[in-house]
Specification:
Protein name: Ribonuclease R-like protein with winged-helix domain
GO molecular function: DNA binding
Keywords: DNA-binding, Transcription, Transcription regulation
Helix content: 55-70%
Organism: Saccharopolyspora spinosa
Strand order of the largest sheet: 1-2
Shape: elongated
InterPro entries: GntR_C (IPR011711), RNase_R_HTH_12 (IPR013668), TF_FadR/GntR_C (IPR008920)
Distance between the termini: 67 Å
CATH architecture of the largest domain: Up-down Bundle
Order of helices and strands: HHHEEHHHHHHHHH
CATH topology of the largest domain: Four Helix Bundle (Hemerythrin (Met), subunit A)
Amino acid sequence: MHSDGVGGPIGTSRGDREEVPLLTALYDATGPIGARQIRESLRLHGIELSESTIARRLRELDSDGLTQQVGLKGRTLTTLGRHRIGVLLRADRTATDLRHATQVETAEDVLNLLKARRAIEPEAVFESAHLVTPHDIASLGGLVTDHDAAVGAGDSFPRDLALGFHRRVTAHSENPLVQAMLAIVLDPSLDRVEAALDVILEVRHRDRDSVAEHQAIVEALAAHDGALAAELMRSHLSRLIAEVEAFIERYDGALLERLIRWNGRGVEQDAGWSPQPH
């Protein structure tokens, strides 16, 4: 079943890797084009398909209502086809933006990431205060307890506990836009940045501060005080920003960038890691 309105269902098009380049070639064309012209267009983008394969796929796209034959001139996109490629291209741009957003490599990138988190996470915990259950509170409290024990035992860089707390405490938001933004700023590919933050906090002897701040957030959530939980999260992330700025001022941003690049190598054990003030 297809909708002939652009706001309706996308349809039942065979979604394989050939669909996007074929629809894109038709989208970019100034008029109807045939299999030979599409083949040349695809070649310019490094895609090799035979004319017979293209012709077969075009017939399938016709049956899906995405393309239409225009006499002997070739094919064009239907309204549904234009809607379909628009959705696919937007999704591709979004994926590209996500890749760029999670390519944190410089000290400035780290600060930008933390500032983005400061804008998003307080809203998520504000909403969480009205949704968390006693079981959720107990689970969050357990993370804080484990974090405290790790720091007390001298276990360096408990990034899974610290970042795990942020992921779990913000997971209750039912706002799809907030959740989409959280998926970016808390993406697993950014764990290496959290590792660098752990180093900074230990160097500056502030690693216990995060434990206390996390505990205060849990207590605000347990009291269902969303405004307080949001303010505590905002203050917590503001302190992390200040810690990074002070570290950069004292040791130079290049060291932070080295910490990020070391990702997963056990930064605390790397022989090259010994911060010296500049």
